Amino acid sequence: MSEFRLRPTAGLPARPRPCAWPCRARRLPLAAAAAVALAAAVALVLPLPARADDAQKARAEEIVQGRCFICHGMDGESSSPVFPRLTAQRASYVARQLADYKSGKRASETMQPMVVDLTEEDFAALGRYFESKPARWHEVADPQLAQVGAFVYARGNPYAGVPACASCHGKDGHGSDRLPRLAGQHAEYVEKQLGRAAQAEAAAGNPVLHAVAGKMTTLEIKAVAAYISGMP
């Protein structure tokens, strides 16, 4: 019986080894393309809020340049104390007042034509635009008068039944989503609004303010207005 022997492998051609780096290299372009596609898809989604904000800001600037700036200035810094200062004013309050002008709930022969063709989206954009502007305030011309106003603003006049302004508008005068920011407002404008609120015909528009302003003396109105104008 012949003896079985293994053949030596020396000298035989080597078997091809599994593909390593060259094959992986060929797969890289596909992976890179997939990554680029994924990044592009994410880029289309993520910037949407930013683009929407930019569009709203651009729309607000367009409206302000075409209508508002003559009286209220480009940044809400009014050209005259006859017109309210809008810098840092509450966005929701601005939007609501503009809507009231459009509907006629708040009467104004000047404002109604300005907003008649604007939309709720425009009102919201304008509110955010003015709220984003830095607050400004006045140097008080009569500090002693303003001190009287500070007392009435913070504590009211309990002897005459006048409640504190701070109870609604906040101790800092920054208002709320329902009530306007008062801090830094023109004294003359505040006096005018309190005077109008005290009139009987204003009761239907704002009965709370009517009840308060109707109990205030001329001195108290001027003092509060002076104090408010200097609030930061």
Can you put this structure into words, describing what you see?
The structure is a single chain. The chain is mainly alpha-helical. The protein contains 10 helices and no strands. Helix 3 runs antiparallel to helix 5, helix 6 crosses helix 10 and helix 8 (187-198) crosses helix 9. It is globular and about 55 Å long.
Describe this protein with a few key phrases.
232 residues, mainly alpha, 10 helices, 55% helix, 0% strand, globular
Structural class: mainly alpha
How much strand? under 5%
The geometry reads as: globular
Number of helices: 10
Unreliable runs, pLDDT <50, ≥5 residues?
Answer: none
Mean pLDDT: 85
User: Care to count the β-strands?
Assistant: 0
What is the helical fraction, as a range of percent? 55-70%
CA gyration radius, whole angstroms: 34 Å
Set down the secondary structure blueprint:
Layout: H1 21-45, H2 48-72, H3 91-103, H4 111-115, H5 120-131, H6 143-155, H7 166-169, H8 187-198, H9 207-213, H10 218-229
Helix pairs in contact: 2-5, 3-5, 6-10, 8-9, 8-10
